[in-house]
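Ticket #4471: structure export looks truncated?
Reporter: QA, pipeline team
Priority: medium

Steps to reproduce: submit the single chain below to the structure queue and open the exported record.
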Amino acid sequence: MFTTSILGEKAIMNCGMEAEVIEDNGYNDITVCFSDGYISHHRSRQQFNKGSINNPNVNRASILGHKKMMNCGMEAEVVEDNGYKDITVRFTDGYTTYHRERLAFNRGKISNPNCRIISFVGRSKIMNCGMEAEVIEDFGYKNITVRFIDGTILKNKRRDAFLSGSINNPNYDGDSIKGTIAMMNCGMEAEVIEDYGDENITVKFSDGTIKEHCSRHNFFKGKIRNPNLANNHSLPQALIYFFIHKYFPDAVSNYRPDWLRNRRTLTNLEIDVWIPSKKIGIEYDGRRNHSEETQNSLEKVELISSASEIEKVITILERGTIVHTSPKHINYQLDYVSEYNEYQLLLKQLEDTVNAILKYFDIDDSIVINDIVIKELYYKIDPVEYRKIKVDNSCGIGKKRVLCSILGQKAIMNCGMEAEVIEDYGYNNITVRFIDGFVSHKRYRHEFKTGRINNPNVKKGGVDRTKEDNEKWYASRGYQRQWSI
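Actual output as written to the record:
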């Protein structure tokens, strides 16, 4: 039986207050003390790690101080919160409304009679019918005029209907987008070859792959993915690793070192591309996942700034992403984002950025991003050949490989025991080995990354060993174990 005591650990709970483990009697029996002195007994370690231990002295439902854009087009802030059905909100123009519901605030349904001063003119949005519309006139909350990309103009529409995408184009027939070509977010062009309705179109990718039963909305959003694409990276991140690995064979993709351990979740944070020989990491921040500051991103900056294991982190940022600065940060700002109508411009600028990074490393060479590189990088290979490939960091640019492989990675599972990936045949087929020798086959990568692979030899809620016992257990089997609480 093997478990790891978490006595003395501290973490921020979801209620927003810090808690410390003051007793640990097993997996399902720990006692935590909040910073206000409240003590909660007989909780589980998993609840502590997930931050789901509640403090009754903290009103979790309170939304005091929250800000949100209302459907009328004006931002509002909660200035008083006296309960679920009694909040007071103040708009940016100073107008205050009383005795409203939290639900109405969260849905943006609190109106301001003065909101005609905020105009929607110039805003554009994909409607639910799959066609983009732009507001060309705005006479108030219940009276806007929109123009679709086919030239159709509709008057006397509501702002909330525009925001929810529920304005339909009466001239939009079943075959209206047949033959339309657009760039998908995966980086490949697609053409609509059949259109049987809003939820049933057939698209053909530039490599000849045909995908049926797609929606028009996903087509215009660029969310239709080519089933032949092999990895889970965004195309820009995959391209960066592709070229960096050419010049630095020791480069590692999706690196999760122990010195990037999140003190709140106890999981290791990730560097997109890590070059051990240079002690330099490379990050690609897309607007979809990095447009807002998060607790993890702030802690990641703090850990990188204080870690001696990393000298510099090069960050490539799409337009509209959060920018972090420190003596270790080198930032390259892009003017475009990973969306179908900007992808070609983005890839061209990414090419220039990668060449600038090579110059930073004093490499007198340049790269070119073209269809040949993308095909070599992004296509699946035959399943039989796939299992014959030795996935390592020594393969050259012309060899087949799986960029998102996690072969060799180690992590602590939720059961408290360390496991290592010893085989990686794809996203839903990895093999892990625990340090006690138990091997688990055909698991998912995300199960490994979230610590959800169990070892039947570890009994939950059993009698804990002390920290010293665990260290002796490791030493007796020849393991070097670093404990961090």
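Status: closed, not a bug. The export was complete when the record was re-opened. Leaving a note from the reviewer for reference: The first helix runs from residue 45 to 50.
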